[in-house]
Give the backbone structure.
Amino acid sequence: MNNNKNSRLCHYLYNLKFNLSKALHVLIILLAIGISNSYSNPLNSQTKIDLVIKDASLIEFFEEVQSITKINFLYKNDVLKDEIKISVNLEKASIEKVLNEAFSNTNLDYKIADKEIIVYSLNNRFNDSTVLNSKVDQEFITVTGTVTEDETGMPIPSANILEKGTSNGVMTDFDGNYSINLPKDAILSVSYLGYATKEIKVDGRNEIDVVLQQDAAALDEVVVVGFGSQKKANVSGAVSSVDLEDALGDRPITNSLSALQGTIPGLQVTLGSGEPGSQREGFNIRGVTSINGGSPLVLVNNVPVSIEDVNPRDIKTVTVLKDASATSIYGARAAFGVILITTKKPEIGKPKFSYSLTSSVSRPTGLPEMASPLEFVTALNDWGRVDYWSLGQDPSVWKGLLEEYNSNPSTYPLGYTEVDNIRYQLENNNPIDDLFGDLGFTQIHNASMSGGSEIANYRVSLGYTDEDGILVTNKDGFKRYHLNSLTSVKITPKLTSDLNVFYSNANRSIANQDYSRAVRVPSFAPVGDHDNGDGNLIPYSTPENLVKLNPANSNINSNLRLFSKIEYNPFKDLTLTGEYTFETKARELTRVNTDPETFSPTVLTIDSNNNDETFYRNDRGKSKYKGLNLYATYSKSLGKHNIKLLTGYNSETYSSSELFASRRNLISYGLPSLDGATGEIRAGDGFGEWAVNGVFGRINYNYEEKYFLEANGRYDGSSRFAEGNRYGFFPSFSAAWNIAKESFMQKQDLFSVLKLRGSWGEIGNQETPGLYPAVPGLPLNNAFWLTPGDIQHVTLGDPGLISSAFTWETVQTTNFGLDIAMLNNRLNVSAEIYSRKTLNMITQGEELPAILGAPAPVANAADLETKGWELDFNWQDNVGKDFYYQIGVNIFDSQSEITNFGNEEGLIDQFYVGRKFGEIWGYVTDGFYTVDDFETGTLNDDLTGGTLKEGIPNVRGRNPNPGDIKYKDLDGDGEIFTGNNTLEDSGDRKIIGNNTRRYNYGANITMGYKNFDFSMFLNGVGKRDIVLNNDLFWPFREKFDNIFKHHLDYWTPENTSAYYPRIYETDGSNYSASRSTQTKYLLDGSYLAIKNITIGYTFSDQILDKLNIGNLRVFLSAENLLFADQLPQGLNPELQDRARGAAYPFQRNFAIGLNLNF
Amino acid sequence: MNIKNIIKMKNKYKIIMLLALVVCVSCENELERLPKDELTVATTFTNNRNFQTYSWEFYETFGTWHTGRNDFNEHSADLMVDGRNDNGDDWIWQRITVPTSSGLYNSCFSRIRKVNLMLDNIDGSEMNDVDRNHWRSVGYFFRAWEYFKLVKAYGDITWVETALSDSDKEVFNGGRTPRKEVAQNMLDNLMFAEENIKENGEGDVNPNTIGVDEVRALISRFGLFEGTWRKYHGLGDETPFLEASADASEKLISSYPELHPNYEQLFSSSDLEGKAGIIFYKEYGRNSVSHSLNQWSRSSESPVWDFTKKAADMFLMSDGTPVSADSDFVNREKDPYSEFRNRDHRMYFTITPPFKIEVLPNTGSLEWDYLPDARYREYIDLLGTISNFIDKPLPDNNWAGMMVPTSPHWKGGVEPGLPFDPGYNTTSWGYKQFKYVNNNHIAIGWVDEHDQPIFRMGEVLVNYAEATFELGEFNQSIADQTINKLRERADVADMTVGAINAGFDPNRDANVDPVLWEIRRERSVELMAEGFRFDDLRRWKKMNYATQEKLGMYIVASDFDNKIPIQNGASEGYVSRIGKPSPWPDHYYLYPIPSNEIVLTNGSIEQNPGW
């Protein structure tokens, strides 16, 4: 045994009673979790042992003796050459006796030197004698000491202590202590993963303490790749990883996707809403995937999960596999990249407890600012309105009253008055601010416990999140519990078993209120309750009251996942792994409408209250997932050739079912339930299933870690395809060249890594329209027909036509990359450039005549291509002993284009060849029509009804007036028109912009000075065009709409350089013509967000030691601190446009918290 | 090897065996997944019950009332106009272009496929001959229903009587089937259905399903259409179709001797089940299958249903004479209150009658009162006596119950003396549609639930009158069985066939027989706004009626700040917003075949001439 595993094995079996059966051992190990091991007695050669072996190899013999006696064997490889067989059958014999018997018929001899036995071949005796003699004759001493970490001074358990050039070695115990016997002039080599190895001359000393320094390059050394890990320097595909502990820091956020936004080049995360527990997040790797959709595969421990189920604080690292060469090993669902999440692993040693708390308050980042009543009414007047719709108010009368009221509110102490029996509201309220009237509160608690020995170890973590959003009441809330437990047991030295139990339960409370109503309630609308005069108070139906009065809907998701893994090393270099996952998810959505009695603040009547509309509805769904992975890895180094082989089998099945029931007419609003309602019960259900399986393999080869080659292949099947087209084979290849390792680069020390990479690969995308695209079924539906008594019958839909030929979409990636590490690894740069072709996308293939009566069967008939690049910089350095800093910046971009699609007519509202994703067709604005555009004298007094001068175009069917938008007549036919909507005749429209997010970037800066640390995180989008067609952007699209401050710059004869066009007294067609998609109102969707700033303080050990606390840090953190964009207040380019433009705003949080370890 | 090693080895084997077992179990048929909430063709077409289940989907062809409204094509004829479309109707203004594809073409063939799939599988079922023939008849009814739409639009059309597959290239490239052949197939199928369908359809269990009466009602409608089309477009062979129509109508008349006593309730009642004169209807319910015709028909959003002056003038005076016969009418029509007086009651249920009220302030326009001047309440009071006031109230209100202050409620012109002018329920031509306005809806979600007549005796009677006239059989006795029953309900004096001479209606189209002219009038009045007029004008080859200048109510321009345009720019006269289109081109009588169909059949389907 010529490696130091040997000594580890000894330690680990040392505590076992060797006459107990293995099974009992395991039991003891399990019971003994957390009880620390004690270590090493010097060899007592008088120890008596029992040994029965037959025909064992020399290695087996050594192992057996070692396992009993903890004696190390030293030998040269040539002693193994003869492949001798050893048989021993002795009881209570001394070591010498055992050895004599063992070597009796061999050419071997031995020497005992304290804790070691040197075995040598008599054939080579003369050759080896010098070495042996010198060694054996040396003076041995015992060296003891402690290994600690440079930065924290914490002891390092399980560090390797080795006599250099030998296999003589030990490991440190839980307190970092070691003791080793070795020649007095030997060299100690001390190593630990992630730290720079240290070599120290013993020089006869008996006590040597060692301090290890973190090795920056070594930290990044290993990255997780599909079904394994690899040295980062050896990776040849496009892979990025982030240490989420760093990226997340202490941000007061609860969802993993938010934490990943901006951290990894090529991973685009959009959040879409600030609502607690919102599920509007979207993410993709490298942009547009397929016209049929497809998103990255998210894996925890090789198990696909929903990323929202992962507790961000359980995550250790996140690795993103981007090109086919990196992902193809995962097959079926990995076509558009893989996000590999590695959770925190057990830490070996005494039980360690840690607890962190983040507590924050939040306010909205930006609410639209409403026009005051006077501004509102002035605008109505300017637009020529003679009455307001709700009560028939006369805006000119109203304006006078408001001016009076504003100068002296005491004139109308009620806040309103009546003229000609019509009520005029005068008070200035703010229904939107009232709606978002609460401070949001968020608490995030996380506790974990970890420890154990090399044999059995564990980590258990508990997380609890409680968010209450910024709407009045606590009805917009999100609560989640996470339990994650990982136990790892070495059943035998060669067999390891891991068990992971994961449970989460999330309860989202959704305020039963349509935010889009809030943007419609004007500032003069009364708030609070309406007093009928008879003492009866009825709440106004203001957004605030509606949230308060309506019960919240609840959405509960729970998730239980069991993961077990068995790893078996039958011999060195070969690992067999089996992984099995069972996951069950359940969700329950409850909706209640009690239709409370309210009073309309605009028309001042009781809102319709129809008991028939009250209802209770409950939706339940559950799903089951089973996954099995079996794989083997083998690695071998032969001289300068390093080879690694992987082969495996994967199988996954999924099934889901849903059930809902609802009933109208609640009896009691307090107890909404099916039984508590009197209407007809309506119920329904649904089912879904899929399965995939495949075999896969990978070959890695490198020469001197200088030239790298990798090949992957996967043969994959999916239930979505018909037998015969079910399986596909998808290969990928990559290569890399680390120039820094070339001999001509050895003289420089600027670069430590200078690696060029290239890859090409194919992978299948199984995303199809529907789960059973190959089965011509007749789906069960409700018929749109009643028979008397309102009986609705179940009927059957059409069996679609199925083409026998369609199969996998193919995603083909070509990737080139460059990795640089330079200036002592202080600067790291990675760059990627790629092309991803999504080929044979499934869509309606050959078009067939309509007399067929059914859509033509789908076929693999469309292609698209995405091209992009990614850049990642990282700089880290220390200034002196006390100050360190790190800056990371990444930026990436991609664009996609249709390269094949059957649209011969060139219809521009469909895909066509050459169509770039996100492109926006619109008119080119040529300013407003002016009085000069009309024949003199033809305009009426109110600047309408004029005749355009010759050559000035009008929108087809519209008679423009000054103040309306004038468009450029691109086709020169004198008229503005859409044409026939084809590429050949697009009328006066052209491509005016693109709403793809371009130049996504993220940056983080961290620094520390003594006990203080600071971090800042930014992200943004560099270029994007957006078109907003909603009530928040456009003033007064119809008479029920509200007016906001930013709407007030509208065209009037006096304000001809306004932003907004002329608005009319009625919702006239001229105004809608002015609102066509056009260059003037193409908005800049770029932004820069300062997502987070955190300042922390770590207490020094002197204080903590007295309190028996390992580590204590407190921090202040601000989330969503600043959002710099080009849109009017209340509109955010990253918020998804809901009806009327109202979206739940992002929240700005201010948090304090602490991290505690003991 | 000692015991320990053996145990070790055994464990190894156990683990390997275990893993192997797991693999084997999981391999088995793993990728064969079938949907759990779907049937297959083999499991569907087995017994009577399954056929019934499958057949419910056929009924979806009757559409939803409000979406059906867009198919009514009423704005393409002469009696109605879209009040918000100042560019005029595309058919009338000759803006129809050859489309690449057509919803009508596609949806008809999609439903034909559905029917054919059932027909293909009847022989393989477990049913007895009675049931087999019943389901064959049901299939024939629905297939004929679809082909009726296709023939009306396109004339020659490919006849498909089996469910095609994507490899049936010879059918795709087989070209169009001549109209006469298609119509004959349809008639033969319907005759088979009349013989073989169960009399009440699924009536024992599920009333209001396709039975013998529904088959006859379709023959009545289709026979008249095809017969008169052939006659007026000179195709010949019209008699069998006219006779089939007349025969079917006659049988229905003896089965349904009574009319629904209240015309207005045909379009405004929440339940038509078992009502006299209703052959077949579509039932709506609040929480399942609802429509929004009511909401749409009040709306001021495009399309707005306005009637033309011509439509208003169609309604006879109570004494049975046309307005054109009264020389004083040119004065009376200047005021809507006198224009509407003593008219066919159907006018009051079809066009919103004039009124004016006081909408009370601070009630959100929900409450109102009479104005002191009694003239403004004349028709409010009249409707109170002749209609079901709860279903169909006058004064009118919008969807939310907010009162309309006046009728006619002009768009874009403020009525003098009104406190304010809400934008809802407006008219651009003066005659606002009232036929479908009622209170059978809830004020949110645009949910209407009043039932929709599909076949009713009102139509059968005018079909019968017209078919017998075209067959030369119309006489006073038939008039009494048909038109006079309708007039009695509408409080109009009886038609006396002998009294109708060339001078009866001075405005008559001189090319139409005076009696036929009155039969056609009765048809247009009885079926106004129900979607028949465009097809009627086309089969009569009278689309020149639709290309006359469309006129609205008589007004004085200065009453509305000169904002409402009048014919020839006069200071008073009939509202005219669009002008006069060019004459109707002959090739417009048939629709253009979608160009995709020509391309995709390699030209074997040819375009209709002129397109």
Summary: Chain A touches chain B through 102 residues (CB under 8 Å). The first helix of chain A runs from residue 5 to 14. Residues 1-43, 125-137 of chain A have pLDDT under 50 and may be disordered.
